Amino acid sequence: MSPLLKQALKLQNSILAKYLMRQVLMLLAAVFIVIGLVIFGNQLVLVIKESLQQNIPVADLMPIIGFKMVRDVPLILSLSLFLAIIIAVSKLYKDSEAIVMNSLGIGDKHFMVFIQPVVIFIFIFILFLTTVAVPWSKQQRSMIMDRSENASEFSFIKEGEFQEFKNGELVFYASKVNTVEGESTQDMEEIFIYAVANNEPVITLATQAQKYTDASSKSVYLRLKDGTRYHGFPTDNNKKILDFDQYDLQIIDGSRQHQQTNTTKIESKPTLDLLFSSNKAEIAEWQWRLSQPISVLILSIFGVLLGKASPRGGKNLGVLTGVLVFIIYNNALMIAKTSLERGDLPAVVGLWWVHVFVLLTIALFYAYRHGKFSQLIAKAF
Hints:
Distance between the termini: 29 Å
Number of strands: 6
Number of helices: 12
Radius of gyration: 29 Å
Shape: elongated
Oligomer: single chain
Protein backbone atom coordinates (compact mmCIF):
# COMPACT_ATOMS: atom_id res chain seq x y z
CA MET A 1 0.00 0.00 0.00
CA SER A 2 1.38 3.40 -1.03
CA PRO A 3 2.05 6.07 1.63
CA LEU A 4 -0.46 8.36 -0.08
CA LEU A 5 -3.21 5.76 0.17
CA LYS A 6 -2.35 5.11 3.83
CA GLN A 7 -2.62 8.82 4.53
CA ALA A 8 -5.99 9.02 2.76
CA LEU A 9 -7.36 6.08 4.78
CA LYS A 10 -6.18 7.72 8.02
CA LEU A 11 -8.08 10.87 7.06
CA GLN A 12 -11.25 8.90 6.22
CA ASN A 13 -12.95 10.00 9.46
CA SER A 14 -11.63 13.55 9.33
CA ILE A 15 -13.78 16.67 9.06
CA LEU A 16 -12.68 17.16 5.43
CA ALA A 17 -13.76 13.65 4.42
CA LYS A 18 -17.13 13.97 6.17
CA TYR A 19 -17.65 17.39 4.59
CA LEU A 20 -17.04 16.02 1.08
CA MET A 21 -19.30 13.00 1.68
CA ARG A 22 -22.06 15.25 2.98
CA GLN A 23 -21.80 17.44 -0.11
CA VAL A 24 -21.96 14.39 -2.40
CA LEU A 25 -25.01 12.99 -0.59
CA MET A 26 -26.90 16.30 -0.72
CA LEU A 27 -26.15 16.78 -4.40
CA LEU A 28 -26.97 13.12 -5.10
CA ALA A 29 -30.44 13.57 -3.63
CA ALA A 30 -31.04 16.81 -5.55
CA VAL A 31 -29.84 15.48 -8.92
CA PHE A 32 -31.74 12.20 -8.46
CA ILE A 33 -35.00 14.07 -7.81
CA VAL A 34 -34.56 16.32 -10.86
CA ILE A 35 -33.59 13.52 -13.27
CA GLY A 36 -36.11 11.14 -11.73
CA LEU A 37 -39.00 13.57 -12.19
CA VAL A 38 -38.11 14.02 -15.86
CA ILE A 39 -37.67 10.31 -16.67
CA PHE A 40 -40.49 9.01 -14.47
CA GLY A 41 -42.83 11.68 -15.85
CA ASN A 42 -41.96 10.63 -19.38
CA GLN A 43 -42.48 6.96 -18.49
CA LEU A 44 -45.87 7.80 -16.97
CA VAL A 45 -47.01 9.42 -20.22
CA LEU A 46 -45.70 6.50 -22.33
CA VAL A 47 -47.34 3.85 -20.13
CA ILE A 48 -50.69 5.66 -20.18
CA LYS A 49 -50.46 5.98 -23.97
CA GLU A 50 -49.57 2.28 -24.25
CA SER A 51 -52.44 1.31 -21.97
CA LEU A 52 -54.92 3.22 -24.14
CA GLN A 53 -53.62 1.52 -27.29
CA GLN A 54 -53.61 -1.98 -25.79
CA ASN A 55 -56.70 -1.58 -23.60
CA ILE A 56 -54.81 -2.42 -20.42
CA PRO A 57 -57.18 -2.40 -17.42
CA VAL A 58 -56.90 0.62 -15.11
CA ALA A 59 -56.22 -1.68 -12.13
CA ASP A 60 -53.01 -2.89 -13.82
CA LEU A 61 -51.81 0.60 -14.78
CA MET A 62 -50.14 1.67 -11.52
CA PRO A 63 -48.27 -1.66 -10.99
CA ILE A 64 -46.88 -1.42 -14.55
CA ILE A 65 -45.72 2.17 -13.91
CA GLY A 66 -44.11 1.08 -10.63
CA PHE A 67 -42.27 -1.85 -12.23
CA LYS A 68 -40.97 0.40 -15.02
CA MET A 69 -39.68 2.87 -12.43
CA VAL A 70 -37.79 0.10 -10.65
CA ARG A 71 -36.16 -0.76 -13.99
CA ASP A 72 -34.93 2.83 -14.47
CA VAL A 73 -33.65 3.48 -10.92
CA PRO A 74 -30.15 1.91 -11.42
CA LEU A 75 -29.43 4.10 -14.45
CA ILE A 76 -30.77 7.28 -12.81
CA LEU A 77 -28.92 6.59 -9.55
CA SER A 78 -25.65 5.89 -11.36
CA LEU A 79 -25.88 9.12 -13.37
CA SER A 80 -26.94 11.11 -10.30
CA LEU A 81 -23.96 9.93 -8.25
CA PHE A 82 -21.55 10.62 -11.12
CA LEU A 83 -22.82 14.18 -11.55
CA ALA A 84 -22.97 14.74 -7.78
CA ILE A 85 -19.27 13.85 -7.45
CA ILE A 86 -18.34 16.16 -10.33
CA ILE A 87 -20.33 19.07 -8.88
CA ALA A 88 -19.09 18.50 -5.30
CA VAL A 89 -15.41 18.39 -6.27
CA SER A 90 -15.88 21.29 -8.70
CA LYS A 91 -17.44 23.34 -5.90
CA LEU A 92 -14.36 22.75 -3.75
CA TYR A 93 -12.17 24.18 -6.51
CA LYS A 94 -14.55 27.07 -7.28
CA ASP A 95 -14.51 28.12 -3.61
CA SER A 96 -10.71 27.64 -3.50
CA GLU A 97 -11.17 25.10 -0.69
CA ALA A 98 -9.46 22.39 -2.76
CA ILE A 99 -6.53 24.74 -3.46
CA VAL A 100 -5.89 24.97 0.29
CA MET A 101 -6.27 21.19 0.63
CA ASN A 102 -3.78 20.66 -2.22
CA SER A 103 -1.26 22.86 -0.42
CA LEU A 104 -1.65 20.52 2.58
CA GLY A 105 -0.92 17.48 0.40
CA ILE A 106 -4.57 16.45 -0.03
CA GLY A 107 -5.39 15.88 -3.70
CA ASP A 108 -7.42 13.79 -6.14
CA LYS A 109 -6.47 10.42 -4.67
CA HIS A 110 -7.59 11.58 -1.24
CA PHE A 111 -10.94 12.74 -2.65
CA MET A 112 -11.39 9.35 -4.34
CA VAL A 113 -10.88 7.60 -1.00
CA PHE A 114 -13.04 10.07 0.95
CA ILE A 115 -16.15 9.40 -1.15
CA GLN A 116 -15.79 5.61 -1.16
CA PRO A 117 -18.29 4.92 1.68
CA VAL A 118 -21.02 6.62 -0.36
CA VAL A 119 -19.88 4.98 -3.60
CA ILE A 120 -19.72 1.48 -2.07
CA PHE A 121 -23.20 1.87 -0.55
CA ILE A 122 -24.64 2.92 -3.93
CA PHE A 123 -22.70 0.10 -5.61
CA ILE A 124 -24.26 -2.52 -3.30
CA PHE A 125 -27.73 -1.00 -3.71
CA ILE A 126 -27.52 -0.94 -7.52
CA LEU A 127 -26.10 -4.47 -7.51
CA PHE A 128 -29.17 -5.59 -5.55
CA LEU A 129 -31.45 -3.77 -7.97
CA THR A 130 -29.89 -5.14 -11.18
CA THR A 131 -29.52 -8.73 -9.96
CA VAL A 132 -32.69 -9.13 -7.88
CA ALA A 133 -35.23 -6.28 -7.96
CA VAL A 134 -35.18 -5.40 -11.67
CA PRO A 135 -35.52 -9.02 -12.95
CA TRP A 136 -38.37 -9.56 -10.47
CA SER A 137 -40.11 -6.35 -11.59
CA LYS A 138 -39.77 -7.37 -15.26
CA GLN A 139 -41.23 -10.78 -14.43
CA GLN A 140 -44.20 -9.20 -12.66
CA ARG A 141 -44.76 -6.72 -15.49
CA SER A 142 -44.58 -9.57 -18.03
CA MET A 143 -47.24 -11.47 -16.10
CA ILE A 144 -49.55 -8.46 -16.14
CA MET A 145 -48.96 -7.82 -19.86
CA ASP A 146 -49.50 -11.51 -20.68
CA ARG A 147 -52.77 -11.44 -18.78
CA SER A 148 -53.87 -8.36 -20.72
CA GLU A 149 -52.75 -9.84 -24.05
CA ASN A 150 -54.51 -13.13 -23.35
CA ALA A 151 -57.67 -11.18 -22.75
CA SER A 152 -56.85 -9.34 -26.05
CA GLU A 153 -58.39 -6.13 -27.24
CA PHE A 154 -61.39 -8.02 -28.64
CA SER A 155 -62.43 -8.93 -25.09
CA PHE A 156 -63.40 -5.29 -24.68
CA ILE A 157 -65.89 -5.22 -27.56
CA LYS A 158 -68.95 -3.21 -26.67
CA GLU A 159 -72.28 -4.50 -27.78
CA GLY A 160 -74.01 -2.48 -30.48
CA GLU A 161 -71.14 0.00 -31.07
CA PHE A 162 -68.72 0.57 -33.95
CA GLN A 163 -65.14 0.25 -32.65
CA GLU A 164 -61.70 0.70 -34.20
CA PHE A 165 -58.88 -1.80 -33.62
CA LYS A 166 -55.29 -2.23 -34.81
CA ASN A 167 -54.72 1.54 -34.90
CA GLY A 168 -57.77 2.13 -37.07
CA GLU A 169 -56.97 -0.58 -39.63
CA LEU A 170 -60.08 -2.52 -38.67
CA VAL A 171 -63.62 -1.39 -37.81
CA PHE A 172 -65.74 -3.92 -35.94
CA TYR A 173 -69.41 -4.11 -35.00
CA ALA A 174 -71.42 -6.81 -33.20
CA SER A 175 -75.08 -6.41 -32.35
CA LYS A 176 -74.81 -8.91 -29.49
CA VAL A 177 -71.82 -10.00 -27.41
CA ASN A 178 -71.69 -12.79 -24.86
CA THR A 179 -68.51 -12.88 -22.74
CA VAL A 180 -68.00 -15.64 -20.18
CA GLU A 181 -65.79 -14.49 -17.32
CA GLY A 182 -62.65 -16.61 -16.99
CA GLU A 183 -63.01 -18.05 -20.52
CA SER A 184 -60.72 -17.27 -23.49
CA THR A 185 -63.62 -17.41 -25.96
CA GLN A 186 -66.25 -14.80 -26.78
CA ASP A 187 -69.50 -15.35 -28.73
CA MET A 188 -71.01 -12.64 -30.95
CA GLU A 189 -73.95 -12.22 -33.33
CA GLU A 190 -74.61 -10.10 -36.46
CA ILE A 191 -71.04 -9.15 -37.26
CA PHE A 192 -69.78 -6.31 -39.45
CA ILE A 193 -66.03 -5.95 -40.19
CA TYR A 194 -64.38 -3.31 -42.37
CA ALA A 195 -60.69 -3.68 -43.20
CA VAL A 196 -58.18 -2.79 -45.93
CA ALA A 197 -56.17 -5.47 -47.80
CA ASN A 198 -53.73 -4.53 -50.58
CA ASN A 199 -55.18 -1.00 -50.66
CA GLU A 200 -58.61 -2.47 -51.30
CA PRO A 201 -61.52 -2.28 -48.85
CA VAL A 202 -62.82 -5.59 -47.54
CA ILE A 203 -66.23 -5.78 -45.90
CA THR A 204 -67.22 -8.95 -44.04
CA LEU A 205 -70.70 -9.75 -42.79
CA ALA A 206 -71.51 -12.80 -40.64
CA THR A 207 -74.45 -13.99 -38.58
CA GLN A 208 -72.24 -15.42 -35.80
CA ALA A 209 -68.63 -15.21 -34.62
CA GLN A 210 -66.46 -16.69 -31.90
CA LYS A 211 -63.08 -15.46 -30.68
CA TYR A 212 -60.61 -18.20 -29.76
CA THR A 213 -56.86 -18.78 -29.26
CA ASP A 214 -55.01 -21.48 -31.21
CA ALA A 215 -53.30 -23.81 -28.72
CA SER A 216 -50.19 -24.48 -30.85
CA SER A 217 -49.43 -21.08 -32.45
CA LYS A 218 -50.97 -18.93 -29.66
CA SER A 219 -52.49 -16.78 -32.41
CA VAL A 220 -55.93 -15.27 -31.74
CA TYR A 221 -58.61 -15.88 -34.36
CA LEU A 222 -62.14 -14.74 -35.00
CA ARG A 223 -64.20 -17.66 -36.36
CA LEU A 224 -66.97 -16.23 -38.54
CA LYS A 225 -70.00 -18.33 -39.53
CA ASP A 226 -72.62 -18.01 -42.31
CA GLY A 227 -71.35 -14.84 -43.89
CA THR A 228 -70.18 -12.95 -46.96
CA ARG A 229 -66.96 -11.12 -47.85
CA TYR A 230 -66.96 -8.19 -50.26
CA HIS A 231 -63.63 -7.22 -51.85
CA GLY A 232 -64.24 -3.66 -52.97
CA PHE A 233 -67.36 -1.59 -52.39
CA PRO A 234 -70.66 -3.11 -53.54
CA THR A 235 -70.97 -0.43 -56.28
CA ASP A 236 -67.54 -1.24 -57.78
CA ASN A 237 -67.49 -3.14 -61.09
CA ASN A 238 -64.50 -5.26 -60.07
CA LYS A 239 -65.85 -6.23 -56.68
CA LYS A 240 -65.52 -9.85 -55.53
CA ILE A 241 -68.15 -11.57 -53.41
CA LEU A 242 -67.38 -14.69 -51.38
CA ASP A 243 -70.02 -16.58 -49.43
CA PHE A 244 -68.75 -18.82 -46.64
CA ASP A 245 -70.08 -21.21 -44.04
CA GLN A 246 -67.04 -20.76 -41.81
CA TYR A 247 -64.06 -18.42 -42.05
CA ASP A 248 -61.16 -17.91 -39.58
CA LEU A 249 -59.75 -14.38 -39.42
CA GLN A 250 -56.43 -13.91 -37.56
CA ILE A 251 -56.47 -10.85 -35.32
CA ILE A 252 -53.27 -11.38 -33.25
CA ASP A 253 -50.08 -13.03 -34.55
CA GLY A 254 -48.83 -15.55 -31.99
CA SER A 255 -45.31 -15.82 -33.49
CA ARG A 256 -44.63 -12.13 -32.86
CA GLN A 257 -45.85 -12.50 -29.28
CA HIS A 258 -43.58 -15.52 -28.85
CA GLN A 259 -40.47 -13.56 -29.89
CA GLN A 260 -41.31 -10.79 -27.41
CA THR A 261 -41.97 -13.36 -24.68
CA ASN A 262 -38.56 -15.06 -25.17
CA THR A 263 -36.74 -11.72 -24.76
CA THR A 264 -38.77 -10.88 -21.68
CA LYS A 265 -38.14 -14.31 -20.15
CA ILE A 266 -34.34 -13.85 -20.33
CA GLU A 267 -34.54 -10.38 -18.80
CA SER A 268 -36.73 -11.66 -15.96
CA LYS A 269 -34.70 -14.79 -15.19
CA PRO A 270 -33.00 -15.00 -11.77
CA THR A 271 -29.34 -14.00 -11.92
CA LEU A 272 -28.12 -17.35 -10.54
CA ASP A 273 -29.89 -19.15 -13.41
CA LEU A 274 -27.88 -17.07 -15.89
CA LEU A 275 -24.53 -17.66 -14.18
CA PHE A 276 -23.71 -21.06 -15.70
CA SER A 277 -25.66 -20.64 -18.95
CA SER A 278 -24.01 -21.23 -22.33
CA ASN A 279 -26.67 -19.25 -24.19
CA LYS A 280 -25.21 -16.06 -25.70
CA ALA A 281 -28.26 -13.95 -24.89
CA GLU A 282 -28.28 -15.11 -21.26
CA ILE A 283 -24.52 -14.51 -20.88
CA ALA A 284 -25.00 -11.00 -22.27
CA GLU A 285 -27.85 -10.35 -19.81
CA TRP A 286 -25.74 -11.60 -16.88
CA GLN A 287 -22.79 -9.39 -17.82
CA TRP A 288 -25.13 -6.42 -18.32
CA ARG A 289 -26.53 -6.80 -14.80
CA LEU A 290 -23.03 -6.73 -13.33
CA SER A 291 -21.81 -3.96 -15.60
CA GLN A 292 -24.19 -1.34 -14.23
CA PRO A 293 -22.89 -1.46 -10.62
CA ILE A 294 -19.28 -1.87 -11.84
CA SER A 295 -19.65 1.34 -13.85
CA VAL A 296 -20.53 3.16 -10.60
CA LEU A 297 -17.09 2.37 -9.15
CA ILE A 298 -15.30 3.40 -12.34
CA LEU A 299 -17.29 6.60 -12.85
CA SER A 300 -16.71 7.68 -9.24
CA ILE A 301 -12.97 7.90 -10.03
CA PHE A 302 -13.62 9.71 -13.30
CA GLY A 303 -15.97 12.13 -11.52
CA VAL A 304 -13.24 13.37 -9.20
CA LEU A 305 -10.95 14.08 -12.15
CA LEU A 306 -13.69 15.85 -14.14
CA GLY A 307 -14.60 17.94 -11.10
CA LYS A 308 -11.11 19.38 -10.84
CA ALA A 309 -11.23 22.90 -12.24
CA SER A 310 -9.65 26.29 -11.75
CA PRO A 311 -11.70 29.15 -10.18
CA ARG A 312 -11.76 30.90 -13.56
CA GLY A 313 -12.72 27.78 -15.55
CA GLY A 314 -16.08 27.09 -17.16
CA LYS A 315 -18.79 26.52 -14.55
CA ASN A 316 -20.64 23.72 -16.34
CA LEU A 317 -17.85 22.23 -18.44
CA GLY A 318 -17.27 19.33 -16.04
CA VAL A 319 -20.98 18.49 -15.83
CA LEU A 320 -21.45 18.62 -19.62
CA THR A 321 -18.37 16.45 -20.12
CA GLY A 322 -19.68 14.06 -17.48
CA VAL A 323 -23.06 13.68 -19.22
CA LEU A 324 -21.26 13.02 -22.52
CA VAL A 325 -18.96 10.44 -20.90
CA PHE A 326 -21.94 8.72 -19.26
CA ILE A 327 -23.87 8.52 -22.54
CA ILE A 328 -20.87 7.13 -24.45
CA TYR A 329 -20.10 4.63 -21.67
CA ASN A 330 -23.64 3.25 -21.49
CA ASN A 331 -24.10 3.20 -25.26
CA ALA A 332 -20.82 1.27 -25.60
CA LEU A 333 -22.10 -1.26 -23.04
CA MET A 334 -25.38 -1.68 -24.94
CA ILE A 335 -23.53 -2.12 -28.26
CA ALA A 336 -21.26 -4.72 -26.65
CA LYS A 337 -24.32 -6.49 -25.19
CA THR A 338 -25.99 -6.64 -28.61
CA SER A 339 -22.76 -7.91 -30.24
CA LEU A 340 -22.43 -10.63 -27.60
CA GLU A 341 -26.06 -11.69 -28.12
CA ARG A 342 -25.45 -12.02 -31.86
CA GLY A 343 -22.27 -14.02 -31.27
CA ASP A 344 -19.97 -11.34 -32.73
CA LEU A 345 -17.95 -11.22 -29.49
CA PRO A 346 -16.63 -14.10 -27.37
CA ALA A 347 -18.05 -14.31 -23.85
CA VAL A 348 -14.57 -13.73 -22.37
CA VAL A 349 -14.44 -10.31 -24.03
CA GLY A 350 -18.15 -9.56 -23.71
CA LEU A 351 -18.89 -6.28 -22.00
CA TRP A 352 -15.64 -6.29 -20.00
CA TRP A 353 -13.61 -4.60 -22.75
CA VAL A 354 -15.72 -1.44 -22.30
CA HIS A 355 -14.78 -1.19 -18.59
CA VAL A 356 -11.10 -1.81 -19.39
CA PHE A 357 -11.16 0.88 -22.08
CA VAL A 358 -12.72 3.42 -19.68
CA LEU A 359 -10.14 2.58 -16.99
CA LEU A 360 -7.32 3.14 -19.49
CA THR A 361 -8.91 6.46 -20.46
CA ILE A 362 -9.04 7.46 -16.79
CA ALA A 363 -5.36 6.53 -16.35
CA LEU A 364 -4.37 8.67 -19.36
CA PHE A 365 -6.57 11.54 -18.19
CA TYR A 366 -5.04 11.38 -14.70
CA ALA A 367 -1.53 11.40 -16.18
CA TYR A 368 -2.43 14.42 -18.32
CA ARG A 369 -3.98 16.32 -15.40
CA HIS A 370 -0.91 15.75 -13.21
CA GLY A 371 1.64 16.51 -15.91
CA LYS A 372 2.81 12.91 -16.24
CA PHE A 373 1.58 12.41 -19.78
CA SER A 374 4.82 13.58 -21.41
CA GLN A 375 6.79 11.28 -19.09
CA LEU A 376 4.67 8.28 -20.12
CA ILE A 377 5.18 9.08 -23.80
CA ALA A 378 8.95 9.44 -23.25
CA LYS A 379 9.09 6.05 -21.49
CA ALA A 380 6.99 4.41 -24.21
CA PHE A 381 9.25 5.64 -27.00
